[in-house]
C-alpha cells in the first residue's frame, strides 16, 4: 500500500480478554478463545453492537503444511491443525499517512512457525485489508500448502444470506448472479450431529488468467436488511474463497493459491519467510454502499499517476477497425479523423511489428521491431510523428510476456528465462511464456520498453496477454508449478513498477484478451484496464454497466466503435455506453460524413465535460446489477456529497418507458438534464419523487442523464 512512514505504534505481548482497533469508519474487535488464540469477534462501523462469542469466531490464521493437515477433514480451508496452535505473542498499531495498520504476531511452539497478521484500512473507509506473513523460526524446514488471507466468522445464519458471484468469460465479463447461500450449503441439523457441516460454497481461479472464469470477488447480503459484506482477493495468479456454516452462523475464508487446487507449495527453511496475497472486505448498508467503499479503497491503495485525474480520450485502431492490420496508408487518415473527433491519445494496436506477407505473426512475435513492409516511407516513426503533429500522444500495443516459437528471441534467451515443466519449455498456441524472475527475461523487456518509450517517444502502452498457462512453471528452486506462477506474476508487477519509475508519465493499459487479468493487484499498478474484446455493440452494455464492480470507472476502458454504416441511433448507442467509464474510441472515423463525425465529436465533448466528476464518483445500479439479456440496463455515478449524479440508461428492447428509482435523491429538489445524445427526439426524462421516468421510443437507445441537487 502507498503511504508515508509509520508515525505511531504501540505494543502488547500480554494476552488480554479483548482489544479493539480501527478508525472513524471501521471498528474491529478481538477476543481470546478458550484455547488462547485471538479471534476477530466483531467488524462493523463504530457504534454498532458487536461481540460474537469467541468460540464462534475463527482463528486469525488457518494454514496447512506437510505433516500438519486439517483438524476436521473436508473441502474447507478452516479447522486446520496449525490454526488453533498459533498462540498470541503481541500486537502493534500505527499509521502510514491516512492508512491505519495493526500487526498481530502469532507463534506455534511445536514447529517454531511465526505468523504475522497484517491488517490495514484507509482512514474513513469501511474496508479491511489482511495478509499473512509467515516466518520459520524453528530448526527444521516447513512445507506450507495453504495460508489464509482473511478469515471472518460469526456472520448471520446461512438461512438469512444471499451470495453473489461474478462470472468473467472472454467477451462476457462481469456477469454477477445471486442465489441463497442455503442453495450451496444445506441445513444438516447441526444439533443432531454435534458437528458443523463439512460443506462449503467455494470458488477458485486458476492459471495465469486470474479473472478467467470468475472475478476474484464475492458478496454476502442479509436478505432483510440488505447489509452487505463484499470481498476481493488481491492475487495476480491463483485464488480461492469459501463460505459455509460455522456454529450456526456463517464464515468467510479468503485464500491465495493452495496445494489442493493450484499445485502451490513453498518450503520455508529456518529463517526464511513468505508473504501471502491480500484479502479485502468492504462493509455497506447495501451492495451499492459496499461497492462505493471498495471503490474508495481501490483508489487509496493504487500507485499514484496523473492519468487517474486527467482521463484523456484514447483512440485505438483495433476494434472493428484495422483489427491487427495497420499500415501507414491506413493509419494516416485515421489519425487525422481521430484528432478531429477530440482524441488525445492514439494507440496503434497489434500488427505493427509484422513483416510477414500472410499476417502470420502470432508465433514469430517477441523482438518487437517495427515492420518495414507496413511502414515503407519513414518507418513507424513517421506514423508516431503524425500522431504528435495532430496534438495526440502516440501509443503502441505490446504483448511482453510471450515469445513466438519461431521468434529469434526464443533461441537468444537462456532456457531458464521461460516457463518450463520437467525440464521441457512450455508452449501454448505457438508461444513460449517468459519468466520475469529471470534477469535475462527482464533485461529483454527493459530494452524493448526503453527503446519504444525512451527512443521513439511513445507515451502509451497497451500490454496484452493472450495465452493462459495452467498450473504454472517449475523453474530451478520452485517446489511446485503454482508457486512458480505466483512468483512470476509478482515479478511481472515489479517489472511494471520499474518501468513506471523510469518513465513516470507513461500510461499503461492492462489487457488480457479483454478482462481476463482484471485483478486488483495488477490494477493497483497499471492505469487503465481493458474491460472486454466484445465486438457487438448490442452485447457490450451489460459489460460496461457492471465493469465498475471490478475496476474504478476512471480505469475501466470501454470500447466505443461507431461506424459509417451505422444509423444515428446506433452511433449514439455505441458512444454513450462508454461515457461513465474510460472512453476507448475506435471505428472507421475517416470514412464518416462530417455530420456523423460531428456526432462522435459531441459525445467526446460531453465526456470531457464530465470526466472530472468521474475521477471521484462512486458507482450505483438503480435497476440492480445488470443481467446479460436484460432489455433495460442502468449504471449510475454519484459524487461523494450526492450533489451531482449521473445515470446512464440503455434500452435494447421491451416497453419504451421505464420508471427508474434513484433513492439517494428522494425528497430533494433535483434538476434532471439529458447530456447524451444531443438529439432531442432520442428520448425524454421526467423526475418524480425518488424516481425517474425515462422514455426511449426507439431501440437500441441510450441516454445519459445528469441529476443536480
From TrEMBL:
Domain Glycosyl hydrolase family 36 N-terminal: 85-188
Keywords carried by this UniProt record: Glycosidase, Hydrolase
Record's catalysed reaction(s): Hydrolysis of terminal, non-reducing alpha-D-galactose residues in alpha-D-galactosides, including galactose oligosaccharides, galactomannans and galactolipids
Listed InterPro entries: Aldolase_TIM, Alpga-gal_N_sf, Alpha-glycosidase_related, GH, Glyco_hydro_36, Glyco_hydro_36_N
Lineage: Bacteria, Bacillati, Actinomycetota, Actinomycetes, Kitasatosporales
A Pfam match: Glyco_hydro_36N
Stated name of the protein: alpha-galactosidase
EC number: 3.2.1.22
